[in-house]
Specification:
Oligomer: single chain
Helix content: 40-55%
Number of strands: 7
Radius of gyration: 21 Å
CATH architecture of the largest domain: Roll
CATH class of the largest domain: Alpha Beta
């Protein structure tokens, strides 16, 4: 399995989320479960079941974050590619960051390097065109710009 790569910004955001979920989040869910238990019969108690579901989802996210934070490689500078699909007008250009799906940059879609488009444009220079095989067939994109995030 490959080592997850994260920018320092994403790493710090995930670390804060982990700390919040393992402290405040667990306390809030425990309180919800306690309040629901006081309502009586647990078999037909929708509030109890909703709180237990919330707890399960939260614990899953905590485990996911724990794995990412323990195994992540912090990388310098993500690259954002602005691309234009063959046949589209310039105002239809799209921006992509190639990285981990936990990255967040406003106005930019995140794709992985293993995706067909990510693999095709990774390392490409501005002004070049690349063709890749998509589920619907071959697509060509022109790289308009390559910028640091």
């Amino acid at each position: 399995m490959s080592v997850p790569q994260l920018s320092n910004t994403a790493y710090e955001r995930l670390k804060a989320e982990f700390e919040d979920l393992t402290t405040r989040g667990r306390i809030d869910v425990a309180n919800k479960i306690e309040v629901a238990r006081e309502e009586g019969d647990l078999k037909e108690n929708a509030g109890y079941h909703a709180a237990k579901d919330e707890q399960g989802h939260m614990e899953g996210r905590i485990r996911q974050l724990e794995h990412l934070l323990e195994n992540a490689e912090i990388v310098d500078g993500s690259v954002i590619y602005t691309v234009l699909y063959d046949g589209d007008s310039e105002d239809m250009a799209e921006r992509y960051l190639i990285g981990n799906m936990e990255e967040q940059v406003e106005g930019v879609d995140v794709i992985t390097a293993s995706s067909p488009l990510g693999h095709a444009i990774d390392g490409a220079e501005a002004g070049t065109s690349v063709t890749y095989e998509a589920p619907n067939g071959a697509l060509t994109v022109k790289i308009l710009s390559v910028d640091q995030a």
